[in-house]
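#struct-help
A.M.: can someone run this one for me? Single chain, 468 residues.
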Amino acid sequence: MPTPAFSWTRRGFLKVGAAGVLGATAPRLMAGNATVNQAVSGTPGWARAKSVLIVLLSGGPSQLDTLDPKPNAPLEIRGEFSSIGTATPGLQVCEHLPLLASQSNRVAVVRTMSHTEHNHLLATHVALTGRPTPIPRGGSDLDRVQSRSDFPNYASALDYVRPRNDGVPTGVSLPNYLIEGPLTWPGQHAGFLGIKHDSWPINQDPNDPAFRIDSLALREGLTRDRLLSRRGLLTDLDRSSSPEVSQFRKSKSSEFGEQQELAFSLLTSAKVTEAFDIHREEAVTRDRYGRNKFGQSLLLARRLIDAGVPMVQAAMGIVQTWDTHVDNWGRLKNVLLPQLDRGLNALLDDLQHSGRLDETLVIVMGEFGRTPRIGTLPGESVPGRDHWAHTYSAMFAGAGVLGGQVIGQSDEIAAYPVTRSWSPADLCTTVFNALGVDPNVEIIDPLSRPHRLQNGDVMAPLYTGVST
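D.P.: on it. Structure tokens below:
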């Protein structure tokens, strides 16, 4: 799998010039140029979250085979699985999610998420930004790949309105950047806000015994004290220069200087370094999450939240992991659902026991759902389900979300909403509302056009328990 052009490497952090002074080529997670207006409280869920964890089920899980089963539908609709009850009235889930069924008092299931994009790339952009792609995309997937004209994802937009320079990144995504061959899924970076607001992509398997983030490791022989000494040297050089030289240096290398400050902050701060050291966890804890890429990614996500990262995205795996056109029930039963069930159960337990569930909004979703009717692709013998964005399910927990409820109702075959539908724009607004971002704040595109960051409605039933 190709590595994103802006991925972070140890070499990038530790570029040393002739004078031996530290530089960096990492994307910056520092100052933005937007001003957040005075907060307006009173909206349901307002400012309840310190962190948001998006568990992305890339490829689109079937609503019928997960959170919205239809046991009374014909076999060609309901599929091969049975459903099981939960402690939540009206909530049945797939038989292969028994642990999550036992967690129903902590979660709210929304069964009427909806939008109009049935293509993976375009649907991922709208799911992770709250907006459709800003320019018409062609008929080929090659015309739909990631672009700097895209809207920023949630982490990047948050970094724009709440820049930080404390060595803790605003956003981290793991364990894979969503790339397949020549296609890079849009919605994963800062888009038109620029590289300085890109979130930090981790392209390693936390389940690998050799897992290690080299960009957070000091070069051999370079100690923290020596690094701080070099930083002091840079400061002294600036102070000793004439005003003209100092001004020239600032005008020519301000971006380099910001990257340099980021590198210093990260390399001299223990928070993020320790969070990524997943090997510190006890074996019994790692076993609870599941010794697989997804389970360990959720564990790592929890550690990053503990370290103060406000926006974390943990994907189930590579792109189209849940794209079950073929062998839908075999893949779900044997791999996907057991890993999801075990990992999320451990995550919710740990967040609850540590008290962090009260301040962490957890969202579990795909970019869309799957067709109610079962089909078999040409040339294939094992059936599955195709793309479907008209109705799909998502799960929410924490940060004021009232657990033990089902929000929305789909029709008898989980094809269309019967009650109000909720869009990615509504989810976007709910996320930033939960983080306490001013609802009037705007982001500015390259043509100097303002865009309201919160472009939908807060999903109030999550907090009130009163469905609309």
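A.M.: thanks! The domain at 21-462 is CATH 3.40.720.10 (Alkaline Phosphatase, subunit A).
D.P.: also worth noting: The chain has one domain: 21-462.
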